[in-house]
Design goal:
Length: about 400
């Protein structure tokens, strides 16, 4: 089970104080909207996107909507000139409504219903992903309209989510798919992989890039049409309670591996978490407290079934803060609001004495939080407040 924070974790982060400006913003937002809240800062989205683009200068970044499919994120990234990675019809509808040009999108779910394919095609997406013959066959009737990527599987036991267990094929299976595609007149554009989310070791990408390069060589030697594209997926890590490598260092060996590919190779990536994780801060308030077994239990209005669901599904350790300063600390439990016993955010952490209505802040809450939150027990999901969305302001100015 995923009880997250030890005493040490909390102390190291509670002293990393929120600055006065941030505290003022938190308090005014709660005064205006109540709690629980998620503050979504579009400036942070821009910063992360630019940092990754700078770290991977030859790669076309397709933001994967899955970790935070929020319209303000899509609009902010549109203004940055980003491309998008879609996986479902709902995501297609969102980018369509916001006016994203379909040429800027790829559809990367390896398993689709015919209706999903049709709706993405009707919007104008042309690039899809397959990892098996059953899926390839679905594209026979659309062979004039599509270009496919074949997704490979490279297992990664170190990642938060080893996406190569559920999706992707072996090199041998990929050869079979590419061979069959030629027979069925379906154009294979290239290869893709996802090394797993929150991958701390760039070597995983390097190994995968080299394996793909070898497969591309094999394709040409077999007399099959040459592949033009390599999609290196998502997985780029962010610092939660423990620090990861700065992104420009992380990407150095990846860039070196990409340099070994033919110069004409088009390279894509599908970052999700890296773009959005630092952009959201959650605010919960204390609903009540009780002393049990020598600890003070604080019952918050957000928890495991809400914004903190990533403690279970995503293994993420979010940095926690209170706004109270005190010389006295007590062993405490931060609990979510529902009547379920697993709804506990942190146990045995040292906190100042909190009163009802006091706020508990969590940082790095942008990825796989609100996207997967539920309203179990009818506790409403946290309301999202969008900050620094310049795009909309500019549109308003232009009338
Ligand atoms: C989830 C997902 C992503 C994003 O992964 P991150 O680890 O959040 O960067 C990218 N591509 C595909 C196909 C995915 O399923």
């Amino acid at each position: 089970m995923a009880i997250a924070h030890s005493v040490l974790d909390f102390q190291s982060y509670s002293t990393d104080a929120l600055n006065a400006e941030k505290i003022q913003l938190i308090e005014s937002s709660v005064a205006q909207f109540g709690a629980p809240l998620l503050l979504l800062d579009c400036d942070a989205i821009r910063q992360q996107y630019r940092a990754l683009q700078q770290a991977l200068p030859t790669v076309t970044l397709h933001f994967a909507l899955k970790p935070l499919p929020h319209p303000a994120v899509v609009r902010t990234l549109m203004a940055e000139g980003a491309c998008f990675d879609l996986a479902t019809t709902g995501e297609v509808e969102l980018v369509q409504q916001l006016g994203v040009e379909p040429e800027r999108t790829i559809h990367t779910h390896p398993i689709k219903r015919d209706s999903d394919i049709r709706e993405a095609l009707a919007y104008g997406t042309r690039v899809f992903v397959v990892d098996n013959l059953n899926e390839l066959e679905k594209f026979r009737r659309y062979c004039d309209e599509v270009e496919l990527l074949v997704r490979l599987s490279f297992r990664n036991s170190e990642a938060f989510a080893d996406l190569s267990k559920k999706f992707g094929c072996s090199i041998e299976q990929a050869m079979m798919i590419i061979t069959m595609a030629k027979e069925w007149n379906i154009r294979i554009k290239g290869l893709s992989f996802h090394v797993g989310s929150q991958t701390a070791n760039p070597q995983k990408y390097v190994d995968a890039i080299h394996a793909c390069a070898a497969l591309m060589q094999q394709v040409v030697e077999a007399g099959l049409p040459a592949l033009s594209t390599l999609d290196i997926g998502g997985g780029f890590p962010v610092s939660y309670n423990s620090k990861v490598m700065p992104i420009e260092l992380f990407c150095q060996p990846i860039n070196a591996a990409l340099k070994t590919l033919p110069e004409t190779m088009q390279v894509l990536a599908e970052p999700g978490r890296f773009i959005v994780a630092p952009a959201m801060t959650s605010i919960a308030s204390v609903m009540g407290s009780a002393e049990r077994d020598g600890q003070i239990w604080y019952y918050l209005d957000d928890g495991i079934y809400g914004s903190f669901i990533g403690l279970i599904f995503d293994d993420a350790k979010y940095p926690l803060h209170t706004l109270k300063h005190s010389s006295e600390y007590f062993a405490s439990v931060l609990s979510g609001p529902t009547c379920d016993s697993i709804d506990v955010i942190a146990e045995n952490i040292l906190l100042p004495r909190l009163d009802n209505g006091d706020l508990v802040i969590a940082k790095m809450m942008g990825a796989y939080t609100s996207a997967t939150a539920t309203d179990f027990n009818f506790f409403k999901r946290a309301h999202t407040v969008v900050l620094n969305e310049e795009v909309v302001d500019q549109e308003r100015l232009l009338g």
